[in-house]
Specification:
By secondary structure, this protein is α/β, with parallel strands linked by helices. It has two domains: about 5-150 and about 325-335, Rossmann fold; about 165-320, Glycogen Phosphorylase B (Rossmann fold), CATH 3.40.50. About 45% of the residues lie in helices and about 15% in strands. Strands 7-6-5-8-9-10 form a six-stranded parallel sheet, with helices on both faces. A four-stranded parallel sheet has the order 1-2-3-4, with helices on one face. Helix 1 (about 5-15) packs across helix 14. The radius of gyration is 21 Å and the shape is globular.
Length: about 350
């Protein structure tokens, strides 16, 4: 498991379930590595190999040698070698090996040679990409299940920012996420039409001349945990763009924003319309012109905007879009499908 925002949130959700957990981190947010190692990793990644960051393969085998487990739950196991999974099965043939990922596993930027070779070795695959279901089966995946995105009950909740926080985090329109040219073109368009936009986490292209406009403010940092919720709750309108290279039709933001009680204006997809009622629990757009029109309308209609945000939060709670519920359902599927023998 990576020691990053959403992985940590799922860990907190798992800790509330009646399970006995042992964790191996594959990455650390505060990890410091030399330039030489960084270059070496980049070269390996280009070749399709995802390098270890925390000696996770050896750690995994050591833990499995010391204790019997019912489930080995691996999140986005790009650095986990096929031989490690084979050894894991030899150590405990009854153990169910689970692959869980929020990314398009056939996008080369979200995959690795190790992972692709390991697909048949997992007992279960859980993916939030509908199109990945058949692709994983075609690649030898055994039992493949689709799940919806979720929010963290520990993080994504309504917060009341202080006057100072409102000044810092507040915006007419905000976007939390990374650069993608299509996103940038939409933001440039509305900025040129007089809409003020604040972007959090752009990073790679924060200094890009194409994004320099008096109506665009780029905060060159990622926001996590409570700070994420403060940005959402301090913004009148929260944009939800999808990542095209990841073939997204929904994303974690799709439920995180409404779960914070924020007003969400998202790209229109079938999946988004399944999650939230249009103009009742969230608002949606398809073109630049429609995005501008919706922003202008909802900035002027505060009461309607707030009603939609409140209804979006109610939908998250009513439909139980939380990680706790998602993970409980995943564990139910695994245990229902497999009668574990005593170890």
């Amino acid at each position: 498991m990576e020691d990053r925002a959403t992985a940590k949130q799922r860990l907190m959700a798992l800790s509330r379930l009646p399970v006995d957990l042992d964790i191996i981190y594959t990455n650390k947010l505060d990890e410091k590595i030399s330039i030489v190692r960084r270059i070496g990793r980049a070269l390996l990644f280009r070749m399709g190999y995802f390098p270890e960051r925390n000696n996770e393969n050896a750690q995994l085998i050591k833990k499995l040698s010391e204790k019997k487990y019912n489930i080995l739950f691996i999140e986005k196991g790009l650095s986990i070698r096929p031989r490690s999974l084979i050894k894991a099965k030899q150590l405990n043939p009854q153990m169910q090996i689970i692959s869980y990922t929020l990314d398009d596993v056939f996008n080369k930027n979200n995959s690795s040679v190790y992972y692709l070779k390991s697909i048949p070795l997992y007992n279960f695959h859980f993916t939030n990409k509908k199109f990945n279901v058949e692709e994983l089966k075609s690649a030898g995946g055994n039992k493949v299940y689709y799940f919806r995105n979720a929010y963290s009950e520990d993080v994504h909740r309504p917060v009341i920012p202080s006057p100072q926080e409102l000044l810092f985090y507040g915006a007419d329109v905000s976007f939390i996420g990374t650069y993608e040219e299509e996103r940038a073109s939409f933001i440039r368009f509305i900025a040129q039409c007089g809409i003020k936009v604040k972007i959090w986490g752009w990073v790679k292209s924060a200094a890009s001349t194409s994004m320099k406009h008096t109506n665009i403010t780029v905060i060159d940092k990622y926001v996590y945990d409570d700070e994420y919720s403060k940005v959402v709750c301090s913004s009148k309108i929260n944009l939800c763009f999808l990542r095209k290279e990841n073939r997204d039709t929904e994303t974690t933001r799709s439920v995180e924003i409404p779960a914070c009680g924020g007003f969400m204006l998202a790209e229109k997809t079938v999946e988004h319309l399944e999650l939230f009622g249009e103009n009742k629990e969230a608002a949606f757009f398809s073109t630049k012109e429609e995005l501008l029109e919706k922003i202008q309308y909802y900035l002027k209609n505060e009461l309607q905007r707030k009603d939609i945000a409140a209804n979006g939060l109610s939908r998250c709670l009513r439909s139980n879009y939380s990680y706790s519920n998602q993970l409980k359902n995943i564990l139910f599927i695994i245990t229902k499908d497999n009668a574990f023998s005593d170890n």
